[in-house]
């Protein structure tokens, strides 16, 4: 719209406003709200704005002014109240109206045909089907009552999610009130109705967010899906409001509450009701048309402004859906066609070596960043020296990187024809890149290790482990701060944390300079918080420091087992190896390594200094009970395969941590398996999971589960 017209409209509105506001402010406020809602709908859901931004701002301005003058007329559904207009119990559990099922996956055209055959067999011919893009975001359930958004929840385990209403209200294409057009489709507007969709972050916004995170020295998000999920889980809804999130809504919890009979009509109604509905949908009648839709979607994938990881195909008629019914884990009337893993080529700039907490050396491919299957990939583990040799990747090579949606990226190998003439085979360095000590490869082991006790890289990992959320949970003690503390020589073991004070921390040189060339320091605000966090960690239940010490074979659950049997460091150190081995679940191997650890003079010294600086190394019974984890994974069965290189956990440790949240852990994959966690070099269990359609999680997903207790969506709609 031309500026002239916009101005005209503005002045028109304000004249009318003056006249009406004085006579009937309530009516004027309602008219303004409807007008703003309508224009938001055109702008965000229809991508067809009808008025200029200036005119829109003017409407908002008038509404704010009127509401300020008449606070009794403020309503939580007003467009002015997206942020802060609602007080709810953030992250409290919310039960879904009906279970939010995951969909079965079809990996490839053949499996898609198998599903189409089953549908054809059931109905005698192919019924009407609806094809939709599978948005790679975070599922949200929205509950409306009397046309107003009352609640929004994450998918959670499918039955119970978390209350994220305050966050979702800030997402601008989510209607706080349904449009008047919605009424014809709802059987009883007074009955709560749950609508479902996907919240996502557009690719461009994701890139901008990561660029700014990197500029501020923060950890970037791995992909837009994680960015969307992370934004929805912000404690402060202001942060969510500043993230550019959008939604596509496509489902209803209980279709009987709507006067629509088909998925296609549901999508039309959702559009009329004011929701953002993805325009790339198709009503089809044959297997050929389904394949055509999938093929075209795959072609268009890169050109779309948001990530998709496949196509969802549903039987159109709700009555026919009911007739086909459900398996134990998914509807029979729908399938998620997953795009094949993507392969891209990029330049291998370097192979660096990472030193883990236990001294294990891992070669890592450092590549030019490349977008593969929705994630930017710049690094990938090469596992060990044998693996680098087997693949024969060399610095300077153009390499092929492969990634499927949920699985960690993998370097497949070099494009040999593009190899520079001077590229040489890679060798593990003879000395530790961190401390320069000779590295050791024990017989029968694939890994090289640095066994120096003074290795700074190991010290860094140990210090980070102590401060991590599962251990002492020292908020703010992240990699950058710890690295500076280690490099400055101020902190070399975990007891040193407890000798830091605010004045000293505030002066910590962060190793960067500002525009004037002066060194950036940590500063008083951060230092004060950090000292408070360190102080708070002094009184954690005994299992936490025990885990934090990073003894070999002693993960979180083992630490809890030991702390139950020996509720103080004094008691634990007094125990003989036999007494340790006699504890249920401990056994001779762990007893031996624990016994040795507690008798190594360096370790004893650290423990004594911790005690001296007021770290409580004993339990009171109450604190231990408070530390018990909620059993959020009850009813789920996990199978672990491959090695967990990122965390350095053994599969036993990971299994124990899952069990601590109520999950079952099994040794073999079957149809009953809920999830397979595939680490590096996952083998036949991974293949079997894919064959059976069991969702596969990568290690970051596992770590997210252990941290939040919630399973991220892998196959979910
Ligand atoms: Zn070293």
From TrEMBL:
Q: Name one GO molecular function term.
A: metal ion binding
Q: Which Gene3D superfamilies match?
A: 5' to 3' exonuclease, C-terminal subdomain, 6.20.10.30, BRCT domain, DNA ligase/mRNA capping enzyme, Helix hairpin bin, Nucleic acid-binding proteins
Q: InterPro entries of this UniProt entry?
A: BRCT_dom, BRCT_dom_sf, DisA/LigA_HHH, DNA_ligase, DNA_ligase_AS, DNA_ligase_CS, DNAligase_adenylation, DNAligase_N
Which residues make up the binding site for Zn(2+)?
Answer: 432, 435, 450, 455
Q: Where is the active site?
A: 134
Say if the entry is tagged with keyword RNA-binding. Answer: no
The EC number of this protein is 6.5.1.2
The record's Gene Ontology cellular component field reads: cytosol
Q: What protein is this chain from?
A: DNA ligase
């Amino acid at each position: 719209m031309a500026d002239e017209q916009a101005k005209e409209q503005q002045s028109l509105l304000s004249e009318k406003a003056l006249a009406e506001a004085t006579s009937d402010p309530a009516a004027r406020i309602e008219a303004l709200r409807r007008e703003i809602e309508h224009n938001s709908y055109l702008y965000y859901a229809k991508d067809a704005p009808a008025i200029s931004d200036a005119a829109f701002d003017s409407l908002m301005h008038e509404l704010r002014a009127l509401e300020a003058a008449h606070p009794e007329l403020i309503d939580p559904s007003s467009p002015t109240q997206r942020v802060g207009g609602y007080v709810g119990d953030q992250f409290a559990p919310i039960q879904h109206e009906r279970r939010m099922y995951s969909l079965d996956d079809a990996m490839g055209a053949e499996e898609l045909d198998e599903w189409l055959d089953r549908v054809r067999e059931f109905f005698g011919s192919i019924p009407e089907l609806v094809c939709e893009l599978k948005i790679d975001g975070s599922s949200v359930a929205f509950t409306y009552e009397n046309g107003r958004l009352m609640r929004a929840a994450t998918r959670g385990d499918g039955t119970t999610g978390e209350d994220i209403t305050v966050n979702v209200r800030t997402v601008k294409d989510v209607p706080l009130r349904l449009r008047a057009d919605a009424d014809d489709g709802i059987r009883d507007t007074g009955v709560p109705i749950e609508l479902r969709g996907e919240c996502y972050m557009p690719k461009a916004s994701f890139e901008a967010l990561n660029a700014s995170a990197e500029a501020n020295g923060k950890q970037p998000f791995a992909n837009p899906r994680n960015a969307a999920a992370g934004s929805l889980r912000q404690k402060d809804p202001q942060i969510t409001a500043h993230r550019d999130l959008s939604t596509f809504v496509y489902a209803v919890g209980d279709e009987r509450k709507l006067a629509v009979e088909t998925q296609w009509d549901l999508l039309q109604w959702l559009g009329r009701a004011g929701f953002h509905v993805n325009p790339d949908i198709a009503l089809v009648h044959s297997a050929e048309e389904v394949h055509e839709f999938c093929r075209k979607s795959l072609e268009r994938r890169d050109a779309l402004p948001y990530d998709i990881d496949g196509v969802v195909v549903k039987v159109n008629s709700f009555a026919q859906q009911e007739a086909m019914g459900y398996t134990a884990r998914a509807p029979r009337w729908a399938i998620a066609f997953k795009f094949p893993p993507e392969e891209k080529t990029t330049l291998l700039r370097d192979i660096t070596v990472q030193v883990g907490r236990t001294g294990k050396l891992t070669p890592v491919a450092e590549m030019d960043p490349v977008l593969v299957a929705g994630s930017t990939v710049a690094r990938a583990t090469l596992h060990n020296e044998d693996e680098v040799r087997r693949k024969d990747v060399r610095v300077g090579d153009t390499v092929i990187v492969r990634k499927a949606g949920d699985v960690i990226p993998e370097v497949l190998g070099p494009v040999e024809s593009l190899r520079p003439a001077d590229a040489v085979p890679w060798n593990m360095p003879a000395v530790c890149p961190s401390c320069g000590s000779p590295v050791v490869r024990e017989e029968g082991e694939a890994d090289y290790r640095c066994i120096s006790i003074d290795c700074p890289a190991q010290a860094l990992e140990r210090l980070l482990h102590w401060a991590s959320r599962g251990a002492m949970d020292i908020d703010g003690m992240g990699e950058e701060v710890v690295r500076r503390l280690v490099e400055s020589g101020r902190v070399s073991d975990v007891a040193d944390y407890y000798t830091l004070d605010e004045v000293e921390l505030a002066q910590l040189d962060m190793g960067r300079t500002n525009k004037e060339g002066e060194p950036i320091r940590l500063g008083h605000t951060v230092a004060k918080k950090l000292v408070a966090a360190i102080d708070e960690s002094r009184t954690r239940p005994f299992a936490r420091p025990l885990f934090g010490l990073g003894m070999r074979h002693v993960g979180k659950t083992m630490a809890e087992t030991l702390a139950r049997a020996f509720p103080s460091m004094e008691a634990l150190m007094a125990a003989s190896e036999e007494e340790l081995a006699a504890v249920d679940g401990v056994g001779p191997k762990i007893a031996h390594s624990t016994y040795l650890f507690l008798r190594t003079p360096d370790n004893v010294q650290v423990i004594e200094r911790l005690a001296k600086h007021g770290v409580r190394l004993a339990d009171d019974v109450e604190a231990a009970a408070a530390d018990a984890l909620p059993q959020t994974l009850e009813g789920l069965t996990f199978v672990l395969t491959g090695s967990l290189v990122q965390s350095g956990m053994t599969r036993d440790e990971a299994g124990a941590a899952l069990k601590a949240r109520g999950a079952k852990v099994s040794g073999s994959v079957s149809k009953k398996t809920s999830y397979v966690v595939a680490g590096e070099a996952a083998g036949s269990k991974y293949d079997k999971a894919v064959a059976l359609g069991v969702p596969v999680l990568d290690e970051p997903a596992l770590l997210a589960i252990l941290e939040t207790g919630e399973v991220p969506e892998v196959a979910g709609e």
